[in-house]
Amino acid sequence: MVYCKTEEEIELIKESSLLVGKTLAEIARHIRPGVKTIFLDQLAEQFIRDHGAKPGFKGYNGFPYTLCISVNDQVVHGMPGERELKDGDIVSIDCGTLKNGYYGDSAYTFAVGHVNSGVAELMERTKQSLYLGIGQAVAGNRVGDIGFAVQSYVESYGYSVVRDLVGHGLGRKLHEKPEVPNYGKRGSGIKLLEGMVLAVEPMINLGTRRVIQENDGWTIRTADGSCSAHYEHDIVVRKGHAEILSTFDYIEEVLNREKQNG
Ligand code: MG
Ligand code: MG
Questions:
Q1: Which ligand neighbours the alpha carbon of 198 most closely?
Q2: Residue 166 CA: which ligand is closest?
Q3: Predicted confidence (pLDDT) per residue in 124-159, tens digit
Q4: Above 90 in pLDDT, residue 1?
Q5: What's the pTM value of the predicted model, to 2 decimals?
Q6: How far away, in angstroms, is 11 Cα from ligand 2 center?
Q7: What is the pLDDT of residues 14-25, one digit of tens each?
Q8: Which of 6, 127, 216, 217 is most buried per CB count within 10 Å?
């Protein structure tokens, strides 16, 4: 069953999604070589609780942390810990919040110091593919139109789309129907209706699309050790356009300020 949300529900999901964006911006201020990923997790949990919400991932299926922090060849679901970020790493940070009974869920991949140009391009194009996918999330299209837009764009650069993990509906539950794959055929899958709220989240690899799970039972990494990038927005399907409920604006303000300060 796919639920279409009321405007009141959409407003609450937006509030939760915006808090995720603010949390990720708070984290962005602390991403630098030498920082431990567990420190970022603690910061995020405090920030979310200080804003009257709960971490959306903590306790979800037994996941013990607030953030999923996935470095380099880790695709998603990385566990925060004693690992220190190093210059040249990329780090995908996925965050969820639960506020007033509704979830927000958004992710962003950050460069740590200076990353090589091939990896920087992977990040930029993965983010671009997210917006191309969102552009197809309009009433009357089908879910396969989103996946087709993502896949055709990233594959034109020789990247690959992770198949084992997909986007999803979102609302009172963190994961609702429908599944939103980042690959697919135009005009295939369920029809998109006004008021459907979806988390669109391409996971794109420099090398093979194949992934493996680490022994911790959570972390997903690329099978060939190549880097992977991940960006995620929460959106609502509208007539003629998709409205983005989450935001990267707070994050990018921080990143631009840091760039200006050298
Ligand atoms: Mg997420
Ligand atoms: Mg998600």
A1: 2
A2: 2
A3: 999 999 999 999 999 999 999 999 999 999 999 999
A4: no
A5: 0.98
A6: 18
A7: 999 999 999 999
A8: 127
Comparing C-alpha atoms, which of 239, 171, 235 is closest to residue 13? 171
Q: Where are the beta strands (DSSP E) in the chain?
A: 54-55, 67-71, 74-76, 90-99, 102-111, 160-161, 167-169, 176-180, 197-200, 203-205, 211-213, 220-222, 228-230, 233-237, 242-244
Residue 136 Cα distances to 143, 150, 169, angstroms: 8, 10, 15
Proximal ligand: closest to the CA of 68: 1
HSE-CB for 5 with a 13 A CA cutoff? 24
Q: For residue 44, what are its two tokens?
A: 């995020």
What is the distance of C-alpha 64 from the center of its chain? 19
Ligand that lies nearest to the alpha carbon of residue 77, given by its number in the listed order: 1
Residue 261 CB partners (closer than 8 Å, separation 6+): none
Tell me the CA–centroid distance for residue 181 and ligand 1, in Å. 14
Ligand 1 center from residue 168 Cα (angstroms): 10
Q: Which structural domains are found in the chain, ordered by start?
A: 7-260 (3.90.230.10)
Beta bridge mates, 91: 71, 110
Q: What is the pLDDT of residues 186-228, one digit of tens each?
A: 999 999 999 999 999 999 999 999 999 999 999 999 999 999 9
Query: How many Å lie between the centroid of ligand 2 and the Cα of residue 95?
Result: 9
pLDDT for position 8: 98
